């Protein structure tokens, strides 16, 4: 039971790290209309945005794992009482 809560927390922490990395990438990105001599590769914003959505999904999944563990623990306590 505790290991499932730890697993849920681990997923949430990993998704938070992904959010921080994607947010940092977005904040430091210089958006370009296209390649220029100074910046041959235009900055692509789609990857960090996809990473943010993916991190949100993982975070929701981790939250569901914790909620389910809590419900199961509550049910077990109700049965034992």
List the helices and strands and how they pair.
Layout: H1 2-28, H2 46-80
Helix pairs in contact: 1-2
* Strand segment count: 0
Point out poorly predicted stretches: none
Shape summary: rod-shaped
Number of helix segments?
A: 2
Overall mean confidence score, pLDDT: 85
The helicity comes to over 70%
Which structural class do the helices and strands define?
mainly alpha
Largest sheet, if any?
A: none
- Rg result: 20 Å
| Terminus-to-terminus distance | 18 Å
Topology pattern, helix = H, strand = E = HH
Oligomer: single chain
SS strand fraction: under 5%
Please describe what this structure looks like:
Residues 23-42 are annotated as: Disordered. It comes from Ferrimonas aestuarii. By secondary structure, the chain is mostly helical. The chain has a domain at 44-80. It has helices at residues 2-28, 46-80. It starts with a helix and ends with a helix.
């Amino acid at each position: 039971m505790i290991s499932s809560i730890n697993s849920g927390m681990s997923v949430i922490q990993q998704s938070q790290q992904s959010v921080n990395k994607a947010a940092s990438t977005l904040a430091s990105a210089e958006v370009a209309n296209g390649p220029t001599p100074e910046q041959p590769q235009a900055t692509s914003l789609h990857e960090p945005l996809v990473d943010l959505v993916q991190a949100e999904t993982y975070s929701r999944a981790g939250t569901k794992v914790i909620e389910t563990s809590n419900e199961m623990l509550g049910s077990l306590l109700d049965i034992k009482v």
